[in-house]
Amino acid sequence: MKSLTFLIGVFLAFPLFSQESNDRVVISVKRNYKPKDTENAVLVFDWNELKKRVNNLKPSNLLLVDQHFVLPIEAKIIDANGDGKPESVTADVTFKSNEPVFGFMVSAKGQGSKVIREAITPDPRFEITYLVPYASNGQKIADRIIESTIHTYPDTKDLSIISPGKWTYEYGFFLNAAYVQYENTKNEKYLSYIKSWVDNFITTDGSWRDGVYDVEEYRLDDILPGRLCIYLYQKTGEEKYKKIADQFIAHLSRQPKTSEGGYWHKKIYPNQMWLDGIYMGDIFSTQYAAAFNEPHWFDEAVQQINLMYKHAYDPSTGLLFHGWDESKNKVWANQETGTSPEFWSRAVGWYAMALIDCLDYLPKDHPQRKNIELIFQKLCGSIRNFQDKKTGLWFQITDKGNLKDNWIETSSSAMFSYAFAKGANKGILDKSYTTAAEKAYSSILKNYIYQDNEGYVHLDQAVKVGSLNIKNSKGDYPYYIGGERRLDDYKGLAALLYASIELKK
Question: How far, in Å, CA of 147 to CA of 269, rounded?
């Protein structure tokens, strides 16, 4: 126990941010079976694979860290022959969630591990991949991100590893970005991949396959992937995609609302508006309005944006709280304002991206366009105030980067980079925002992007989820700070892909 306590102290002295390119390796552990919520396991890593990737790694300085919860793990060095040439590193670990892929980091920043003479056989259920810090290979990063997904999940049925067989916003978010890159490159492989994913869920006559989508749940999250159906209808002319898009607009027309007309985030969250929901629903409705000449959906989207801003805006920081509850629930809502307690960076990122993306479709002469641009300008100015000077990135809780247990979060940092770059490219923000976007983007590449032996890329340190579900969240600082992090979270990869496209990387 003393050694583990010492390791924790050592780890905290070495933050994840690093100036070196070969001082660490991230290990991807894929569980090739249906994982349990909590599970103990023995992992075995090849010592020689680690040593050739990490400078100056020795048994006396090895540090092993669980990247999902950022906890040091006591490891043992296996030298079965006692010849002073270790064969492997082993550790007893607890998988604290049912994530199919876990990340671990090895560096030469610890106080070492015990060397033991013991034969040990790796568990064949675990697929081990060693990842090193990103290096350019001349290919555009946007293409590398898409190609890496296609390589990892060549069959799109396997892409939904988090929610198998379900229509999910995470992959819809990523594939929307991939479609933008398809339009830039005309790489038909990208279009085929996107079409294949959507076709997994719908029939040739434009009906849903059983069990993939239930409109009666009224989840705004389900609307986001519907943007793909508009793209695909415009590209292919196939009526099945138009029929699905029509079903989503019908869904929005019946979405439960607050007394002022604001969408509930989900039916199970009565009276609650979340920042996330603006991105999930309102870009779709503006895209639909533009594609099918139904201008009243522009007005509906603008109303949602304005209501969210009205109720979630904080004048002291210029940021927006994650959510607002008209009924002022007793779990997380401020009893005077109805707002949740904290500024969660990814939620702020969803809202910022929603504003700039809705402006792709909102007519130049729409009476609310200038107001939306003004909200976007004010919000981006406030976001930039909290950009970390050292890393160029943003913390999980936006305004509390001074607290030691707050941590750099990559998905929101990529979202802000994208919003800044696109705002500047559109002339809504000045060019200093391009500089801020570039700084954040470069920092993500240097410190949080890894690649395998074949050059396929992976993103680390994106938070898995942030919720205001009153059954499991108070929406407070400890809740967000304790959130599980992911290797290759598709919300993070999608945001990075969008930023790559906007910055022409």
Answer: 37
Residue with tokens 């999902």: 68
Long-range contacts of 256-262 (CB under 8 A, 24+ apart): 256/218, 258/307, 258/326, 259/326, 260/307, 261/303, 261/307, 262/303, 262/304, 262/307, 262/308, 262/311, 262/326
Q: For the chain, which residues make up each domain, given as ranges?
A: 2-133, 141-502
Q: Check if 2-133 and 141-502 are the same fold.
A: no
DSSP states along 395-407: BSBTT-TTSTT--
Residue-wise pLDDT for 412-433, tens only, equals: 999 999 999 999 999 999 999 9
Query: Which is the catalytic residue, given 66, 276, 325, 488?
Result: 276
Annotation: CATH topology of 2-133? Immunoglobulin-like (2.60.40)
Any catalytic annotation for residue 276? yes
Q: pLDDT tens across 426-463, in order?
A: 999 999 999 999 999 999 999 999 999 999 999 999 99
The pTM (predicted TM-score) of the whole model is 0.95
Domain 141-502 sits in CATH at: 1.50.10.10
Give the length of the chain.
505
